[in-house]
Structure formats: C-alpha cells, structure tokens
Design goal:
Distance between the termini: 40 Å
Helix content: 40-55%
CATH topology of the largest domain: Aspartate Aminotransferase, domain 2
Low-confidence stretches: 78-83, 85-89, 128-137
CATH superfamily of the largest domain: Type I PLP-dependent aspartate aminotransferase-like (Major domain)
Strand order of the largest sheet: 3-10-9-8-7-4-5-6
Number of strands: 13
Length: 456
C-alpha cells in the first residue's frame, strides 16, 4: 500500500483537480469525511489530514458541525492548461494519465487500485531489504529458482516448459518490445487483436511496423477475419490475449483457440499470447500455448497485474531457439533484469504469501465485477457475457457518446475514461468503452454515464 503521505497527496490532488476543472466551486460543500474515504478506499484519518492541509493552503474552510467548504479555486498549473487526454486516440496520453493520476475517478485505468495489490500480507514483505546477493547483476536468463517455479505454474496450465525455455523480463511490455525488435522490420505487417492492447499498437508504430487489426469477438478472434488477413497481409506474427482480454474482458473458447492455431499453421504465423491475468484465472481455461506446447506460440506472463504495478517482472516462454534469441537481445539492450525483484517474488511464492494474496485479489475482483455490472446495467448499458474473470468490461455506447468530446466531458468532471478508438489498430471503431471493475461502480461515474446517455 502507498505510504500515508502518498495517500494524503492523492486525496489532496483529487480535490484540487475538481477545483481546477470547476466541478467544485467556491462556497460548495465537500463530501463528508466518511463519504470521501469510502469512495477512494482510504482511511478517514487520511481524508481528515488532506482536508486540513487544504485548509492551511487557503483552499478550504472548516465549519464545525457542518463540514468543509471551498474558499477559492487554485491557479491552473502551467502543464495543466489543457485537460488530460484531450485527444481520445493519443495512446501516450492514456499511459501518462495512468502514471500521473490527475483525475480522481478512474474507470478507464488499466490497473487495479494500489490497495488491492499491496494492502494485505504482502506489505511487510515488500518494506525492507531482504537479499544481499541481489546487489550483484542477475544471470542473463533471470533468477533460476523463480524460473523453475514458473515452469511448474505453466505445467499446471498444461504448458510443458523447461528453465532453458524461459527468460525473465521487465514486465510484459518489455517482452512485447523484445519480440517486436527481434522479429519485425520496418514496413512489415503484423496482425493484432482489434480492439487490442494499446501499448503494443504504440510499439508497432514506433518500430515503423504496420498493425493489421483482426476483429476481436467476445469469445476470441474472428476466425474468418484472421484467415483473410493472414492470407492477404503477408504478416508472420499475430499478437493476441486469449483470456480476460484487454480491453473487451472476453475469453477465448476451445473451438476458437483450435481455429487460431489451424490458421497459424496454414499461413506460417508465429503467435504471441499475452496472459497477464493467469495467476487469478482457472488453470484449465483454453490457452493457445497449452494446445501448441510452445512450438509456434510465444507465451508471455507478468506479475504487474497481480502485484504492485511498479513491479516490472515478467517472463517469456518459447521454443528453445526463440528463447535464446530473445535472451541475447535482452542482454544487448538491458544487460539483465532485477535480481532483487525476482528473488523477492520467489520468496513470496515459496513461503505461501503470494497464494494468500491471490485469493484475496480474486475475491475483490469478483465482488467489484458484480457491483460494476449491476451499476452499468441500471444505468442502461449492456455488459457482454460470459465475464472473462479479469479487471475489464467492454460496453457499447450509443452513437452520440462517441468522439473526443466525450473524453473532454469526462475529464472536466474529474473522470478518466478509456474510449474504443485508443484500442483500435485503425484508430476508429464502433463507439465503446473499457471499464475497470475496480472503479466502475463509483456513483459519480455512473451518474455521469446516465447523464451522457440521456443527453444523447
């Protein structure tokens, strides 16, 4: 969990953002201590301290027995002259907002709240140095005991893997970057889910590679679209996320998984399967890597979605030749991954702390999903079934709710949303929105959604 000063700063910044955007005006009463603490998932003492600091800055006034009231609006920061995410298709802006966290209501976030990941029994294991041997460089492939343990986890998912087929990375994004660098050249066509993982789209554009979107249905890639584009594009790579798909939340069926591999074999495609939610999903769900056994599938995993977002530890499992090629590129570009972080994660797994944390995380995600689905459906939006088991839902929007103006309207209300255009290889698509279940039941967000639907 973030330290108390960081949580206080987060509450303060949320209030200041609402003041700057005009959502709160001089003379208006702030939410009660209890309401704000419940909405943000922090302690009441944290909110009290944040409000008192804003009183000391002259922004608020405390009225005994009544609450806290706005006194004045702070001047806009020079870097905040424009609202964040002014351009809905700017993928870099979406990433920056996830890091800077300027908007307090966050259904568009790609991550769960920090207290979902660090508030339990993990915190005491993350708060002090533990491994003196981690002061040295890691081995080129990564910490061997962790790689051996991960091979055991893959075996439970039906994927046979040896430590010589697995290399550690700085998270899934680093793994994707290595694959793009090693197996594409400028001008190449690459197949991707559409909608799909927007940081990957940004990487491909940066590498002067042409992403070709394959229509993503709720139960996996559209096989007719995949076959046509594999035949006509000349692509040799297909990037996909089979389970708890980001952004749609759907998961592939066994029949669709078989169809993907049949098409890949017929057209010489290497498939890159990203599985970021594997640790909170059932082992027996259909995975391309379990059907293919790493012959033509490169499998990516990460701890960034289940541990702290700043824990940049991931891994790649692949055929021995491919694993060796990717590891050689990793050494040339980054030398090594973090020995300290990998040993720490191994310790958490080995002593059972990680398993306890995952049980708690699954419970939180399940409860939040149910609350978000109820809230969205009550607001008039349909949620596709079956639910994928990750952190995301995908909702279709009525036509009047599309466009950059929707992002600006949300930001003016202090709400961070993730519209469909950001996730499309073509930068367009039917109006839709990704909703993070950790924030989707926020009353302010749901009220704003009802208002936008009604005004349309």
């Amino acid at each position: 969990m973030p330290t108390a000063p960081h949580k206080i700063d987060f509450v303060m910044e949320g209030v200041l953002t609402q003041l700057r955007s005009g959502l709160l005006r001089p003379g208006e009463r702030l939410p009660s201590i209890r309401e704000e603490a419940a909405r943000l998932g922090v302690g009441k003492n944290t909110v009290v301290e944040a409000y008192l600091r804003l009183v000391a800055q002259g922004m608020l006034q405390a009225k005994p027995g009544s609450g806290y009231y706005v006194v004045r609006t702070p001047p806009a920061r020079s870097e905040e002259r424009g609202l964040p995410l002014a351009a809905a298709t700017d993928r870099a802006a979406l990433l920056i907002e996830q890091l800077d966290r300027r908007l307090p209501i966050r259904p568009g976030d790609g991550r769960p709240p920090p207290d979902w990941l660090e508030a339990s029994e993990l915190r005491r294991h993350l708060s002090f140095p533990r491994f003196r041997e981690a002061d040295a460089y890691n081995t080129s492939w990564g910490h061997l005991p962790l790689r051996e343990r991960l091979c055991g986890a893959l075996a439970e998912r039906g994927i046979a893997c040896t430590p010589g087929q697995m290399l550690m990375t700085h998270g899934a994004n680093h793994a994707l970057d290595l694959i793009v660098r090693r197996y594409t050249s400028p001008g190449d066509a690459v197949l991707v889910d559409d909608p799909g993982y927007y940081p990957l789209l940004a990487k491909l554009v940066l590498a002067s590679v042409r992403p070709v979107g394959v229509r993503r249905l709720h139960d996996g890639p559209d096989l007719h679209d995949l076959e046509a584009k594999a035949r006509d594009s000349g692509a040799r790579l297909f990037f996909t996320q089979s389970l708890a798909h980001n952004p749609t939340g759907g998961s592939i069926t066994p029949g669709a998984a078989y169809g993907v591999l049949r098409i890949a074999a017929a057209h010489g495609l290497m498939v890159v399967e990203d599985d970021p939610f594997a640790d909170i999903l059932p082992y027996a769900l259909p995975r391309l890597a379990s059907l293919d056994q790493l012959e033509s599938v490169i499998y990516i995993g990460t701890f960034s979605k289940t541990l702290a977002a700043s824990f940049r530890v991931g891994y790649v499992a692949a055929a021995p030749r491919i694993a060796a090629e990717l590891n050689e590129l990793k050494v040339v570009t980054t030398v090594a991954t973090s020995a300290h972080d990998e040993r720490l994660i191994f310790q958490l797994i080995d002593q059972g702390h990680y398993l306890k944390h995952l049980r708690r995380l699954r419970s939180r995600a399940s409860k939040a999903t149910a609350e978000t689905v109820r809230g969205l459906e009550a607001a008039g939006f349909s949620v596709r079934r079956p639910l994928g088991g990750g952190f995301y839902l995908w909702i279709d929007l009525p036509g009047p709710m599309e466009g950059d103006h929707l992002v600006r309207n949300a930001a003016a209300a202090g709400i961070f949303i993730a519209p469909s255009a950001t996730f499309s290889a073509g930068g367009a698509g039917p109006p839709a929105m990704r909703v993070n279940v950790a924030y989707g039941a926020d009353p302010t967000f749901l009220a704003w959604m009802r208002e936008q639907r009604g005004s349309g």
